[in-house]
């Protein structure tokens, strides 16, 4: 069964499994103790730290192990903000950061601080000049991911890091998605990552803090990991994480070329065979293994279920696959179509035949889902003399509001409008995206008694 969701969690690398089993026998003792078993555990911990630091591109004494990537992000942001509290309490971050960064920003604001979200282009990347414009005299910390976890777009970290250095602001880089593929370039100040993203065991994160960065660990003081990660180290998992990081780096160059070609094939074939689809993310400056596309008139949850029934494990950022009924904040920030969203992230070693089968199965499944939902399958009918129409889609979830819009757009003459009433948050994103795909004019959003009124003018 092809597993195509390595962006969520990569399968355990064989080297990680071997290292984990060996460390369970050799690394169970307390590495802080001076007796034989403790010294043996300390040697394993020091070796793992050196290997991880080499992969990150920092000194071993700048890196600590945490209980997860999320913990590393929370500790890194809180410690840097506290260490620079005399400078100010302002935080800068991109609008497409991982939820762990957004949650830290929200907690910081609730405690009296402030933050600025830097918008991204339609590709998902920030403009370095726009990011520099968000830096202020009271900015204590800036955050920018190395590559996006949902669409794969790589961020201009080196350029932003240089601008932050000019402004005297430390930059924290969330490298969870990219670290297995190579080190992060640029003059970053703090870096976080998570082992389960590159094939290490879950429950191990990395936090690197460069020398010279003012940093004050928050919470009760601890004696381990320089006081930055309290609690007894999970040494077997740490050893496995470091071993697997070194192993995947040795394979990364060759696998990146191979997977980039497979992802390029998915991008082109999906756009050519599926129809009414938007492939999102930067087509060039991207991670080699990840591609995301959104299918018009498709219920994302149903499509994922159908793919699962055919043996493919993928994920989605559609609102109709989430408990909140809101589209992914990443897709929302990019201003792209969210309905019917599918994220494919290939693990190392993915067989070409599995990708071929996925591309053979996908178009038929999309067509089946559209048929069930009553989506339009042909060109709109000739216009009738109707000045305007109102479509009531209140209480109906994505992709129904857009489907209802598509059904009636041909019933109004060119220049007339269709108003869609909807209370589904996804409509705010998907109706403008549909207009761009269909070359119709999105007039705007108006208040309504319930939900919102989205006005579309027919251009052709």
Description:
This protein has helices at about 15-25, 35-55, 70-85, 100-110, 130-135, 155-165, 235-275, 300-310, 330-335, 350-375, 400-410, 425-440; strands spanning about 65, 90-95, 115-120, 140-145, 170-175, 190-195, 205-210, 275-280, 290-295, 340-345, 390, 415-420, 440-445, 450-455. With about 450 residues, it is an alpha/beta fold. It has a seven-stranded mixed sheet, sandwiched between helices. A four-stranded mixed sheet has the order 11-12-14-13, with helices on one face. Strand 2, helix 4 (about 100-110) and strand 3 (about 115-120) form a beta-alpha-beta unit.
What would you call the shape?
globular
Number of strands: 14
Q: From the alpha-carbon coordinates, what is the Rg to the nearest angstrom?
A: 24 Å
Give the DSSP E fraction (strand runs of 2 or more residues).
15-25%
SSE topology string: HHEHEHEHEHEEEHEEHHEHEHEHEE
Largest sheet: 7 strands, mixed
Order of strands, main sheet, comes to 1-7-6-5-4-2-3
Give the count of helical stretches. Answer: 12
Broad structural category:
alpha/beta
Overall mean pLDDT stands at: 92
Uncertain segments of ≥5 residues (pLDDT<50)?
A: 378-385
Span between N and C termini? 45 Å
Q: What percent of residues adopt helix (DSSP H or I)?
A: 25-40%
């Amino acid at each position: 069964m092809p597993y195509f969701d390595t962006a969520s969690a990569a399968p355990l690398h064989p080297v990680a499994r071997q290292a984990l089993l060996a460390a369970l026998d050799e690394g169970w003792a307390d590495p802080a103790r001076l007796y034989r078993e403790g010294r043996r555990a300390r040697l394993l911990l020091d070796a793992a730290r050196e290997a991880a630091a080499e992969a990150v591109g920092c000194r071993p004494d700048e890196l600590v192990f945490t209980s997860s990537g999320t913990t590393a992000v929370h500790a890194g942001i809180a410690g840097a903000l506290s260490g620079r509290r005399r400078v100010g309490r302002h935080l800068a971050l991109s609008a497409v950061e991982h939820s762990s960064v957004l949650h830290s920003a929200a907690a910081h604001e609730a405690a009296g601080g402030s933050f600025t979200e830097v918008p991204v282009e339609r590709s998902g990347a920030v403009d370095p000049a726009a990011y520099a414009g968000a830096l202020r005299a009271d900015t204590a910390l800036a955050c920018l991911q190395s590559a996006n976890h949902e669409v794969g777009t790589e961020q201009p970290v080196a350029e932003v890091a240089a601008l932050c250095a000019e402004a005297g602001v430390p930059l924290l880089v969330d490298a969870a998605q990219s670290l297995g593929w190579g080190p992060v370039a640029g003059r970053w100040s703090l870096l976080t990552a998570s082992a389960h993203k590159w094939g290490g065991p879950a429950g191990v994160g990395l936090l690197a803090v460069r020398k010279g960065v003012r940093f004050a660990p928050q919470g009760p003081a601890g004696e381990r990991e320089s006081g930055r990660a309290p609690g007894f180290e999970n040494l077997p998992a740490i050893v496995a994480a470091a071993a697997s990081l070194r192993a995947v780096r040795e394979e990364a160059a060759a696998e990146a070329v191979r997977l980039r070609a497979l992802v390029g094939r998915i991008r082109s074939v999906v756009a050519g065979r599926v129809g009414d689809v938007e492939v999102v993310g930067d087509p060039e400056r991207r991670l080699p293994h990840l591609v995301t596309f959104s299918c018009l008139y498709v219920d994302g949850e149903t499509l994922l279920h159908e793919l699962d029934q055919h043996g493919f494990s993928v994920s989605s950022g559609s609102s109709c696959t989430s408990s909140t009924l809101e589209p992914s904040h990443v897709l929302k920030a990019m201003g792209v179509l969210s309905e019917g969203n599918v994220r494919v992230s290939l693990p190392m070693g993915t067989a070409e035949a599995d990708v071929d089968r996925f591309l053979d199965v996908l178009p038929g499944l999309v067509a089946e889902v559209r048929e069930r939902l009553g989506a339009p399958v042909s060109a709109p009918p000739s216009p009738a003399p109707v000045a305007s129409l109102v479509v009531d889609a209140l209480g109906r979830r994505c992709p129904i509001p857009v489907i209802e819009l598509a059904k009636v757009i041909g019933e109004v003459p060119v220049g007339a409008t269709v108003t869609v009433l909807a209370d589904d948050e996804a409509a705010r994103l998907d109706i403008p995206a549909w207009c761009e795909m269909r070359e119709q004019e999105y007039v705007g959003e108006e208040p309504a008694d319930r939900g919102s009124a989205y006005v579309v003018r027919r251009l052709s």
